[in-house]
Amino acid sequence: MGKAPHHDYYSLLARKEQYPARSAYKLQEIDDKFNVFRGASRVLDLGSSPGSWLMVARERMRPESILVGCDLQPLRISLPQNTYFFQDSIFERSHEFTESLKEFAPFDVIMSDMAPNTTGSFCTDAARSLALCEEAFAIAQEFLSSHGVLITKVFMGGDIQGYQSLLRASFVSVKSFKPKSTKKESKEIFYIAKERKIYNINE
Ligand SMILES: C[S@@+](CC[C@H](N)C(=O)[O-])C[C@H]1O[C@@H](n2cnc3c(N)ncnc32)[C@H](O)[C@@H]1O
């Protein structure tokens, strides 16, 4: 039998290790490289379903730390301890989700693995992905701590340069990263932005 294709390896591994999606390994790689969870006690996960990133974050954070997630879709995992989940769109946040953001802010990490429903049109998909990143950025402007980390996934194409400039204007360090566990044919990359240039006056 021939060698399993690259993406099958991570899907099989996810099944074996009981993650609901292979995306778990992307966050593991991001954390292994950028230490995003070191010392983090409050993390916001945008686009949490089915729940792999929540599981990885939970494994890498202290048990008493707080995780807040949101997604249009329900989770396919049981809610880990000290974790709150809201079935919401980030564009139309419910009162409960907004209150929870205010209650737990400032967050040490805000991470987004959000992806639009793909239409097959490269331009439309890239534009929708960018809109999700820009909203994640807006949420970070309001709720991320001064030393916090913003992780966003963006589809290549669209005005990715404009988004990069937005991040560079607001964060001291901005790195792009394509995890090995990302499917070869995938057009997505992650931006890891650290240390805000403009601080929250309330901190
Ligand atoms: C690749 S999946 C996330 C996988 C997740 N990180 C995990 O590891 O299980 C992308 C998610 O983005 C969500 N999403 C897309 N648009 C959204 C929006 N406007 N608000 C909240 N979630 C959204 C989708 O419902 C989908 O579940």
Written account of the structure:
The chain is α/β, with parallel strands linked by helices and 203 residues long. It is 37% helix and 25% strand. The protein contains six helices and seven strands; from the N terminus they run H-H-E-H-E-E-H-E-H-E-H-E-E. A seven-stranded mixed β-sheet has the order 3-2-1-4-5-7-6, with helices on both faces. It is globular. The termini are far apart. The model has no long low-confidence stretch (mean pLDDT 93). Bound molecules: S-adenosylmethionine. Residues 20-21, 23-24, 47-53, 70-73, 89-91, 113-116, 132 line the site of S-adenosylmethionine.
Helix-strand layout with pairing:
Blueprint: H1 6-17, H2 24-34, E1 42-46, H3 52-60, E2 66-71, E3 83-87, H4 95-104, E4 107-112, H5 122-143, E5 144-155, H6 160-170, E6 171-177, E7 188-196
Parallel strand pairs: 1-2, 1-4, 2-3, 4-5
Antiparallel strand pairs: 5-7, 6-7
Bound molecules: S-adenosylmethionine.
S-adenosylmethionine binds near residues 21, 24 and 50.
Mean pLDDT level: 93
Bound molecules: S-adenosylmethionine
Low-confidence stretches are none
Structural class: alpha/beta
Strand order of the largest sheet: 3-2-1-4-5-7-6
Q: Over the alpha carbons, how many angstroms does the gyration radius reach? A: 16 Å
- How much of the polypeptide forms β-strand, as a percent range? 15-25%
Tally the beta strands: 7
Distance between the termini: 58 Å
Q: How can the largest sheet be summarized?
A: 7 strands, mixed
Order of helices and strands: HHEHEEHEHEHEE
Taken from the alpha-carbon principal axes, the silhouette is globular
Q: Please report the number of helical segments.
A: 6
Q: Helix amount, in percent?
A: 25-40%
